[in-house]
Amino acid sequence: MNAIPIRLLRKIGIAEGISFLFLLAIAMPLKYVYGLPLAVKYTGWAHGLLFVSYIGLAYYAKEVYQWPLSRFLLAFASAWLPLGTFFFDKKLSIEEKRIKQGMR
Fold first, then answer.
1. Residue 27's CB: how many other CB atoms inside 10 A?
2. For residue 40, which of 25, 31, 45, 92 is within the disulfide window of CB 3.0 to 4.6 Å?
3. Which of the two residues, 9 and 1, has the higher pLDDT score?
4. pLDDT tens readout for residues 20-55
5. Can you give the three-state secondary structure of 9-67, one letter per residue?
6. Sign of CA dihedral 50, 53, 59, 63
7. What does the DSSP 8-state code read for residue 99?
8. Please, what is the Cα angle at 57 between 43 and 98, to 5 degrees?
9. What is the model's pTM?
10. pLDDT band at 18, cuts 50/70/90?
11. Number of folded domains in the chain?
């Protein structure tokens, strides 16, 4: 089985998690404390694009690897929680290793 979809999901998940933390910890204080709304505008757009990409890739991975619905829902929920994608990435890294070992 091909490990590329899960590897891409992991990379997008890390980027999505970083963008979410940046939005919460840097852009929102810049907007509400210092009156700089453009920080949220641009960071929000980037985060939104990464969020949608992550959910789409999670669904694609569900189809490719025949995940149960519960695993897809866990991926979906992890994208809503700060640090969630980082914790879910640990599960994905284990699965990626298992897939790579099965390919040999």
1. 22
2. 31
3. 9
4. 999 999 999 999 999 999 999 999 999 999 999 999
5. HHHHHHHHHHHHHHHHHHHHHHHHCCCCCHHHHHHHHHHHHHHHHHHHHHHHHHHHHCC
6. negative
7. H
8. 120
9. 0.91
10. very high
11. 1
**b (16+ CB within 10 A) / e for 28-45:** eeebeeeeeeebbeebbe
Tokens of 1: 């089985």
pLDDT exceeds cutoff 70 at 56:
yes
Structure tokens at 30: 């810049």
Question: Are 63 and 9 a contacting pair, CB within 8 Å?
Answer: no
Contact between 62 and 73 under an 8 Å Cβ cutoff? The reply is no
Structural domain boundaries enclosing 16 = 4-103
- Length of the chain, in residues: 104
Taking alpha carbons only, the member of 10, 4, 2, 28 closest to residue 93 is 10
